[in-house]
Predict the structure.
Amino acid sequence: MGDKVWGFNDSGLQSHAQYLTVSENEAIAHIPEGITYQQAAASIEGAHYAYNFIKRVPFGGNRKVMLNGASGAIGSAALQMLKYYGAEVTAVCNTQNLGLIKSLGADRVIDYLQADFTQDWKLYDFVFDAVGKSSFGKCQRLLKQGGVYISSELGVNAENPFLAMWTPFRGGKQVRFPLPTDRKGSIVFVKKLLEGGKFRPVIDRWYPLEDIAEAYRYVLTGQKTGNVMIRCNQDES
């Protein structure tokens, strides 16, 4: 009783419930020392998806990665995880977030308001579209032979799951579309990063629960940076 814990459950329809009962065997863990409830809450959803996508690609040596959508919840988490694994990351974001993305460890940053990242001159082992706004067709020219494209979204006409089934059999460049089912693994990994000072959650802004509709409207603009958080209790800080 009284332990500070945090966790993640993306099943069912309990969104924004003030309380949730879960089994002790679910994806929950003690919050690391020095981390607030608010920081912990901002450290898991985007990180969960980033972890489940990234773990499907073998890392070793100096892998080169193109990361589109680096300033979002998934992208900002993926950037920090990729740097933890020793990857060389070229990150794509807008002008206002260039400084943030550099501070999170990006080796090179492309401002998508100034240049089309799909026309970059480098070749990459891995292209990760963390906002799902591009496509394998546009990005495959960036991939080395045997390189992998992963998107956080289904793609045009829901093509990504089908490409993930077909491209591995033809050899060469391929698409992978991992199902983000490992909630417990993501909690364990993010906790490890937090404890080691290797992860910093990015929070755009907070909304009180009664303004949840306005929070959704803001998220739907596609311009948020990192995470948009909901405050269930007015006394939360």
Observations:
- The chain has eight helices and ten strands.
